[in-house]
Amino acid sequence: MHKASSESRRSRARRTPTFVEFFAGGGMVRAGLGEQWRCAFANDFDPKKCAAYRENWGAAELHEGDIGQLSTDQLPASAIDLAWASFPCQDLSVAGLGAGLQGQRSSAFWLFWSLLQSLQNEGRVPPIVTLENVCGTLTSHEGRDFREIVKALVKLNYRVGAIVIDAKDFVPQSRPRLFVVAVQSHISLGQYALDGAHGAHHSQALVRAYDMLSPGLKKHWIWWDLPAAPPRTINLIDIIEDEPSDVKWQSAAETQNILDLMAPIHLAKVAEARASGRRMVGTVYRRMRRDAHGGRYQRAEIRFDGLAGCLRTPGGGSSRQLLLFVEGDVVRSRLLSSRETARLMGLPESYVLPKRYTDAYHLTGDGVASPVVKHLSERLFLPLLNTGV
Question: How far is CA 34 from CA 58, 73, 198, 351, in A?
């Protein structure tokens, strides 16, 4: 196994660390890593997402195309400090069909792993690898898919840990996601590893997934010690546009139809908002529920807790999230605007969104919240590189 020399460590400390990102989308990971990192390579196969990436970051580092067609010759020859892969979640999501890592989309993980394996054979495997995906990864195929991910990384001489972070700690959106963070064995963990699972970042589902690992894999496991995020300073109402240009207010009849779909517990929330005397903004999802006889019916469910529900892409059968505005007896409704979805992902106002509403919503709903990436970078990645590589 290759071990970095002290001269190499000093060299890394002097230069700006580099990263490569796969399944890059519109570059939300790049937005989160910021100027403390240099992007050396980015890849996505979706033409619309690649167009947004170029609009915001330029074309120099982006390679548009199937990851399965990439070779290490196309990756930077210089040292890579971090490889990030937000591989497709469709087959791992609870809303998916349960195909897991063998599914048509989520199996792209193995294409990313194959590139890592080639880099290892060339003696230039990245010291840090991060995978981001839905928390359903932990339970997919009764934990077997997660076990296969850990096993695959261990095979490349990585020690592996995972943490669950909810974007609601940073932005007004409930968006729990799994982050698998793997480091090469020569990295000193120092104060960043715990002796067991502790705190919110180590969910019960994660602990159960760990318990299902073999003793051999557990020897390579890390319980990452990630500090808590500072208190969130914005709520849903703070990111709302008064008169967005890309969505229209629904008619009174359409708004009433939403209210008619609510169960008494949710109608009570609307009544409480009316009685408050303040402008209240809640988010609504229409969901299919089952009755006592196994039949299916639609319900509208609202929350007024200052958070949006998890953004979802328009495809895949998921309903789009609605906003319900309550000011006394006046109740209005509309879809989230594309700029509001960008704000819910922590993107700056300068971020250029696709002109078509559906394209913009798909871009943001399929991304990773940038402030979460920033937190991981500042509180884990950079310290590990500075002290242990």
Answer: 15, 26, 29, 13
178 contacts: CB under 8 Å, gap ≥ 6? 131, 132, 133, 134, 135, 137, 138, 162, 163, 164, 206
What residue segments make up the domains of the chain, in order of their start? Answer: 6-230+367-388, 236-364
Tell me the C-alpha distance between 385 and 363, whole Å.
31
Q: How many other CB atoms are found less than 10 A from the CB of residue 91? A: 23
Rg of the chain over CA atoms, in angstroms? 22
With a pLDDT cut of 70, the percent of the chain lying above it is 89
Is 172 in a helix, a strand, or coil? Answer: coil
Continuous segment of H or E residues that includes residue 183: strand 176-184
**pLDDT tens sequence across 337-388:** 999 999 999 999 999 999 999 999 999 999 999 999 999 999 999 999 986 5
Mean of pLDDT values over 67-81: 93
Q: Rounded to two decimals, what is the model's pTM?
A: 0.91
The two beta strands, 62-64 and 38-44, are parallel
Residue 380 one-letter amino acid: L
Q: Residues 6 or more apart from 268 whose CB is under 8 A from it?
A: none
Residues 6+ apart with CB under 8 A from 212: 142, 143, 146, 147
- Classify domain 6-230+367-388 by CATH number: 3.40.50.150
Helix-helix angle 47-57:357-365, to 10 degrees: 80
Pick from 333, 304, 306, 305: which is nearest to 320 by CA? 333
- CB burial readout 334-355, b (16+ within 10 A) else e: bbbbbbbbbbbbbbeeebebbe
Other beta carbons within 10 angstroms of residue 46's beta carbon come to: 18
